[in-house]
Amino acid sequence: MAALQQRTIDLIRSHQDAVVAQWVEQLAATGQSQDSRLSAREVDTQVREFWRLFQAALTTSGAGVAGSEWQELRHFLEQLSRERVLKGFSSAETASFLFSLKRPLFELAQQQLADDPKVLGDQLWAISELIDGLGLHSVKVYQKTREDVIQRQQEEMLELSTPVVKLWEGVLALPMIGTLDSQRTQVVMESLLQRIVDTGSEIAIIDITGVPTVDTLVAQHLLKTVTAIRLMGADAIISGVRPQIAQTIVHLGLDLQGIVTKANLADALALALKRTGQTVTKAAV
Amino acid sequence: MDRIPILQMGDLLLVTIQVDMHDQLALTLQDDLSDRIQKTSARGVLIDISALDIVDSFIGRMISTISALASIMDARTVVVGMQPAVAITLVELGLTLANVQTALNVERGMKLLQQRNDEAAP
Amino acid sequence: MTAVQGSLPILVEQDVVLARQAARQAAVACKLRLIDQTKLVTAASELARNAVIYGGGGSMEWSVVESGLRRGLRLVFIDHGPGIPDTAQALTDGWSSGSGMGLGLSGSRRLVDEFELDSAPGKGTRVAITKWI
Q1: Is the pLDDT reported for residue C2 higher than 70?
Q2: C107/B contact by beta carbon, under 8 A
Q3: CATH for C5-132?
Q4: H or E element, residue B102
Q5: Strand partners, C8
Q6: Quick check: helix, strand or coil at residue B7?
Q7: pLDDT tens digit string along B19-50?
Q8: 54-93 of C, contacting A, C-beta below 8 A
Q9: Count of CB atoms situated within 10 Å of the CB of C91
Q10: What is the value of ipTM here, to two decimals?
Q11: How far lies A159's CA from each of A8, A146, A186, B29, B70, in Å?
């Protein structure tokens, strides 16, 4: 990793007004200084704040942008990247904010270090690596933020696609459809528990008819959920246990700890009604 | 020293825990309850933990102990209002509270105590 | 960005309540989901109590940590007590060196994402727990 020399750092600091002004010009030239998503003032604030942290972090250590001197600037870039994701910027646009800074810094070096070509070459390289490092970091954060947004959207879709329904007075049902992964099961189970409390329902029927396979982890989650339901003072019935799943459960040696299972939702509902002391009678014709 | 108030309603004792208890306060509650059960010949104890957002192993054991003590003195205990996050955490922690009866809310809890007392009546 | 960090002495039993409150505030400031907050604060309660009862008093420190792009809230409990002779055994359920506190250490481990236990006779005990945000 090429290291910045103290001379270069001093140069950058003493010429900062010119460098920043050129940077802002560069941003304007590439259409970055303002558009509908960010006002000119916001960009200006970002430029100034970035510069404040940047020039404070400049060091001769040559350790790269992962070093502790760069922590504050890294955090600032992370925030910047996140904001830009949420505002709909592309990763290229986000990185361009940083790469536009190369030109003013290069020109400064070329003007001031012309007396020693070897040093000039070396320092140009150091500046390039530095800006590249910062750019890469902001792109990584950008991608992570995008993934987080997608994940949150998936969770929201999950809640929508796995609604907790009130089957009867005091009886809730949670029809689970599709493959259950660890995370999905947790999210859904938490909302089931909350609904139980909110509605004061004594029995929750978890229907897994639409679930093709159940592995140890998922089975454990189901077990933990039922245990939690019982701890709160309600109870659960698992319905829709198909032969294949029953086989898996036996094969895996899972102890269902007295949890009642029913082959289908109708049987589970009948049991739930009985347990809650309710009967359904046919009206006399 | 502050203590958690215990209300008496007929032959039922009602405790609502609304503060973050330090261990001594919990132990004092245990003692106070045993005292009151004996003095009032209470048949039921209702512990409302709907305001507790943390139940750790100490509080969990306090609840188990109260239930056991009450039982020896011929009173039944029901714990009501456990929050979902607390339930999930207790399961993860490995605290089963096996010998403690629970109900979703005060109303259900009282009904439960009434049933059990009716069943147990000579 | 205001840093979420601090420390708190845990010398007497009432300090365990303060430790819970500090852990809760830190977890809220880090925007941990409610269930994760609850698990972390419960673990903190167990470990703080251990520090008082078995460690003769100690302290709790908290800070935000980074691992790659992940951020987490880390709590560290330190005491200068007698230390744990067999840490492996201490982490199995039901173990307790005194009167019935078996679940505290092993239970806490299940509640958090990262768990480090550093202890030996005469060395005191240090437990660091982390919950990713």
Answers
A1: no
A2: yes
A3: 3.30.565.10
A4: strand B101-103
A5: C60
A6: strand
A7: 999 999 999 999 999 999 999 999 999 999 99
A8: 69
A9: 15
A10: 0.92
A11: 55, 20, 11, 41, 42
Q: Are the beta carbons of C38 and B22 separated by less than 8 Å?
A: no
Determine the Cα–Cα distance for residues A216 and A250; give it in Å rounded to an integer: 11
Structure tokens at C125: 């005990």
Instruction: Measure in Å the smallest separation between the Cα of C85 and chain A Cα atoms.
Output: 33
CA A137 to mean position of chain CA atoms: 17
Structure tokens that stand for A259 in this block:
């949890």
End-to-end CA distance of chain A: 90
Residue-range domain boundaries for chain C? 5-132
Give C6's strand partners. Answer: C62
Closest in A79, A141, A190 to C69, CB measured: A141
CA distances from A260 to A3, A53, A206, A235 (A): 68, 62, 11, 10
Which whole-number Å values give the CA distances from C43 to A39, A106, B55, C26, C133, in the listed order?
46, 53, 10, 14, 16
CB contact under 8 A, A200 and B83: no
Say whether A263 sits in a helix, a strand or coil.
coil
Contact yes or no for C42 and B88 at CB 8 A:
no
Which pTM value belongs to this model? 0.76
User: How are beta strands A171-177 and A203-210 bridged, if at all?
Assistant: parallel
Determine contact, residues B47/B66, Cβ cutoff 8 Å. yes
